[in-house]
Amino acid sequence: MKDGRFRKLLDAILVPLLAVLSGLVLMGILILFLRKPLFESYAVLFANGFGCREYGNCIFITALERATPIILTGLSAVVAFRSGMFSIGQEGQYLLGAAAAAWLGYAIHLPPILHALVIILAAMLVGAGYGWIPGVLKVKLGVNELLATIMLNSIAALIVEYLVQFPMRADTSAVAHSPVIDESAQLMSFLPGSKWGVGFVIAVIAVVVVYYYLWRTKPGYEQRMAGQSRKFALFGGIPSDNSAVRAMLISGALAGLAGAIEVMGVHRRIMTGFSVGLGFDGLTSAILGQVHPIGVFIVAILFSGLKLGAQIGLQLKLDIPRELGGTIIGFIVLFVAAGKFYEQSIVRARAWSTRKQGSNLKGDSG
Amino acid sequence: MKDVPMTPAIEMKGITKYFASTQVRANEHVDFSVESGEVHALVGENGAGKTTLMNILYGLIKPDSGEIIIDSQKVQINHPDDAIRQGIGMVHQHFKLVPSFTVAQNILLGMEPSQAGFLNQQNENKLVDELARKFNLPVDPAARIWDLPVSMQQRVEILKVLERRAKILVLDEPTAVLTPQEVNELITVIRGLSKQGYTIIFITHKLIEVMSVADRVSVMRAGRMIGTKKVSETSIPELARMMVGREVLLRVKKKQVHPGEAVLDVRDISLSDVNGLAAISHVSFQVRKGEIVAIAGVSGNGQTELVEAISGMISLDGGEILFKGKSINEASVRERRELGMAHIPEDRMVVGLNLQTTLDENLIVSKYNRSEFSRYGFLLMQAISQFAEKVVKAFSIAAARPGEGIAMLSGGNLQKVVVGRELSGNPSFIIANQPTRGLDVGSIEFVHKTLVEERDKGAGVLLVSVELDEVMALSDRILVLYRGKIQGELETATATEEEVGILMAGGTLEDLKQYSEDKEQGENREVKS
């Protein structure tokens, strides 16, 4: 029994692991092309992505901070994908959630904690509302959710840009930004000088909640069954249209939550160029993380670490362009997409080893 | 029985094939030999390894070991092209025709005679016409495939293989899609080809067909060749025992029927198919407690829509359905199931099961809402896995394990999962749509026995089947569906296969009477002259 479980886990992580390794090898080749020291590059990359410099001053903490919004947008994608909705609308829902949080942060004044709670709920509502649109369009009119969410992402980006440039603009500085949010609306951080804080705890809680929701509750079961086979759901009496819309509401709420936490815990305001593609990073980590909450959690931290290592390590110390970090991630995603190749190799390797182990295996019927 | 010349056309020796990905030994040291000019049936349960063996012969799969000898020469077959060069042709279970092309275009696909790079349609049609005449298999060369009935499409497939100069024809379950009349025609065609010197390998698991068409029969079980017999020296019970490895009840024993009041009352309903065309028009019938009512008919005559409407998956265009005396027109699938309706769908792979998830989650699909399995929105995981264990034990689904996936189970075991789910919880009405399609003798016996048990316990059963044998063996009453209407109703105890057959083909019982009278008169006249 134990053995089977271990093998299942191994099956789940083997392909992403091999993909990451292939990505790193390819990165080494690029570094050689740039005529930079190979092994030092790797060392610098990891030290500056995942290591600690001195007592408690850990860059890894920063990786965790950067991972927070990616975990949440990743969970957003997991909920949608598991329910059969190929929604890539996380970016738009994230932006609108962030805008709502930034506005409520300075426009209303409430005691601490309460203020933060109100903002978080409002941002989740906004995100859910923005997720509801493609959900209903799909169910009622058969509009492809992929196309709808692509368009809605652009619309959200433009709306937020307008809000920041005009109604929410704080001053006439060159870079448009909104006023700083009230202290009562800010999320606490754990260490001075770091922004790793309550937001990360919320993300961890969200990982657990999403897992339990999808695999241990009735609505989660309905969503997954309807997502895997609509005909099966129809046959069994599962209300699959409701499931799809509910999935989009939850997915939107999670992305909106990500936006709120990024505003309340990191930037304390919203500014032009707020979107740096965190919604898409979430999408990628969902796919690389085998569309599983735990997988998303691990991959989001890995991504943030690699990006940091490339940014402050490779660029500052070795003068290697920081875009390399993004390039590695791009490679890794490509290798995951080529996962069939790894799966076949694994199957072949297993077949070879079982044949070696003994050809006296008893035949069973197919 | 004609004499069979004793020269092997094909010999397969010691064929072994192990599928590493599924850890299945599909073929284990299989020896198989077919003599020139004979009709050789290859039978076995699903997963016995027949298709693997034939795919090896046709070059679609490479064996791990073993050799193939054709006309006393050892050959390497790595690709279907090699097989075709050796004179082997295969007619697959699922036809590989281009629906929008004509018959001639399909038969000559890839080998069209051309003049200076231009195709000549008339020339092609003439060629195919000659071919069809030569083999006495008339077809219209200019007809498009999508306009042809299934039996005609099969004929095109056979001609396609013959045009490629095949001397050995492999037919993979050719009768699965045909009506009884069409099966008889095909058997005539096979006999004709065999007389012209063609060798035919006939894969099937219907033993009646084996007895009526084959010269010899080879039986496989669990990847091994169990034996080869002359058809004249064996019997259906013996072959069934060889296939399953134990005694099989070929016809379930049934008690006298004692129907009670109507559980399902269908009143004048009309339905449309997915394209909005009329599929069922003004159909009425009843199913009473304790009886099995069969809907017989060739597939595509409205059965799918009828079943979907009764189970609540599509809505009615007109009419009313009463369940236990109350209208269920507005009831959802779930409400109907709560009222005691169970449904074994025709497509277990896509509709009846979700192959991507675990056994447990498949077993609760129609029940997860009940307080047994969920409370306050949370699933009761322990209760669910206990239920799964109970079903596995009660229906002896040998290979299934609670908590694990079902995608690797064989067709028979998958159907047991469906039947187990649908029949646990004492339903008062069961729709069984093609419940034994694609199943082997052992699994068919299980499904039939279970359905009869439910009937004896007082459930009403609506059996929808295109298998005449099944309809005759299982039902108490037969309704024949033809073009969306009920063509006739028969009591199974007094009905003959001929009567059901003529109704299935759209005729009436008067036609049959007329026909047999004519025949008798004709015979009398012959006697006189």
Notable features of this structure?
heterodimer; A: 366 residues; ABC transporter involved in vitamin B12 uptake, BtuC; two-stranded antiparallel ribbon; disordered C terminus; B: 529 residues; alpha/beta; Rossmann fold; 4 domains; six-stranded mixed β-sheet; 18 helices; 24 strands; 26% strand
Topology record:
The complex is a heterodimer of chains A (366) and B (529).
Chain A: H1 2-33, H2 38-50, E1 52-54, E2 57-58, H3 59-82, H4 90-107, H5 114-141, H6 145-165, H7 198-216, H8 218-228, H9 230-236, H10 240-267, H11 278-288, H12 293-318, H13 323-337, H14 339-357
Antiparallel strand pairs in A: 1-2
Helix pairs in contact in A: 1-13, 2-3, 2-12, 3-7, 3-10, 3-11, 3-12, 4-5, 4-6, 4-10, 4-11, 5-6, 5-10, 7-8, 7-10, 8-9, 8-10, 11-12, 12-13
Chain B: E1 8-19, E2 24-35, E3 39-44, H1 50-57, E4 65-70, E5 73-75, H2 80-85, E6 88-91, H3 103-107, E7 114-115, E8 118-119, H4 121-134, H5 150-163, E9 168-172, H6 180-195, E10 199-204, H7 207-213, E11 216-221, E12 224-230, H8 236-244, E13 262-272, E14 278-288, E15 292-296, H9 303-311, E16 318-323, E17 326-327, H10 333-338, E18 341-344, H11 348-352, H12 359-363, E19 374-375, E20 378-379, H13 381-394, H14 411-423, E21 429-433, H15 441-456, E22 460-465, H16 468-474, E23 477-482, E24 485-491, H17 497-504, H18 509-528
Helix pairs in contact in B: 14-15
Explain this structure.
The complex is a heterodimer of chains A (366) and B (529). Chain A is mainly alpha-helical. Chain A has one domain: ABC transporter involved in vitamin B12 uptake, BtuC, CATH 1.10.3470. Helices cover 74% and strands 1% of the residues of chain A. Chain A has helices spanning 2-33, 38-50, 59-82, 90-107, 114-141, 145-165, 198-216, 218-228, 230-236, 240-267, 278-288, 293-318, 323-337, 339-357, and strands at residues 52-54, 57-58. Chain A has a two-stranded antiparallel sheet with strand order 1-2. In chain A, strand 1 and strand 2 form a beta hairpin. Chain A is globular and about 70 Å long. By secondary structure, chain B is α/β, with parallel strands linked by helices. Chain B has four domains: 1-87 and 167-250, Rossmann fold (3-Layer(aba) Sandwich), CATH 3.40.50; 97-165, no CATH class; 258-340 and 427-437 and 444-529, P-loop containing nucleotide triphosphate hydrolases (Rossmann fold), CATH 3.40.50.300; 343-423, no CATH class. Helices cover 34% and strands 26% of the residues of chain B. Chain B contains 18 helices and 24 strands. A six-stranded mixed beta sheet of chain B has the order 6-9-10-3-11-12, with helices on both faces. Chain B is globular. The relative contact order of chain B is 0.10. Classes of the chains: A mainly alpha (366), B alpha/beta (529). At the A-B interface, helix 8, helix 9 and helix 14 of A face strand 2, helix 10, helix 11 and strand 20 of B.
